[in-house]
Amino acid sequence: MKPRKFIISGGGTGGHIYPAVAIANELKTRFPDAEFLFVGAEDRMEMEKVPQAGYEIKGLWISGLQRRLSLQNLAFPLKLVSSLAKSFKILKNFKPDIAIGTGGYASAPLLRMAALKGVPCLIQEQNSHAGITNKWLSGKVQKICVAYEGMDKFFPSEKIKLTGNPVRQDLLDISLKREEAMTFFNLKKNSKTLLVLGGSLGAKRINQLIEKSLPFLKKQNLQVIWQCGKYYGEIYKSKASEAVQVHTFLNRMDLAYAAADFIISRAGALSVSELCLVGKPVVFIPSPNVAEDHQTKNAMAISQKNAALLIKENELDANFEKEFSALLASEEKQKALSENIKKLAKPNAAKEIVEEIEKLLKMRNV
Fold first, then answer.
1. Mean pLDDT in residue range 268-281
2. Do 15 and 124 fall into the same domain?
């Protein structure tokens, strides 16, 4: 049998790139002699991250529509035509057995042309509120892998498979890494630890909250691992103390999760999926500044199952200390949140997505 050829497109943000790479990695374990080609947007982070993961990538001249009138919007039709033409050429030369999309601008023209050429297509949607690209492609693809229930309000129900989001495998069994984590971060064993996450760039409002709340957190005898993001390191590094560690970036997320007793986090799709696997009490503070307010919807999908707390940015000043104090005071609440969020974990997402890909290959007799 000739080696399989997989073409994969997804990018713009880590939330689209990392699932694409995770799917490719799982495919490589099943098909060691397979050929892979990624397609991304020319000026986006996938052009750096995908080669770092060991895969070839080609770039399209494509970007999204801006919500306000701009010169960029005037160029959009030209970019789309250019990207459709280049996608056609890439597909003609590479001749993939299947096309896989994980969202982002570049996956729209690539998968649209793949579908027109009769190539089987699968897309993966990370969020509880479907992105524009995947909604547009949903009528043209054979299978849609999703991370949340109730996605039939966006996609044809007969195409949907609930798989979850692919997550890093080093988060499995983090309870076994607790001792290593305490030593790595030089933490006291007689104090509880709060892990604060705002993404690699940082979350301004969460950083402001933690700065303001440091006296309150000290009163609670908490030690803090505060990941403030690369944009905010210079601003907040002076806030470090014996009980407060300030990091621009955390290289060992598995150990950070293992050390944590409580977590404050944004609610991006991959963060939510990781936190389900980690199974610690979580306070979600979703960013309101993202498309379709999808972080709030992601967090609500968890908090409505009594599996996390959700505090909106505009309610932080009024509610944070009150709600967080109540959580600290109730071991019963902590246990319930931990147990309920763990029930939502999908540790085998990448494997299940690849099983769906294999089914499409068999249908095509590849």
1. 95
2. yes
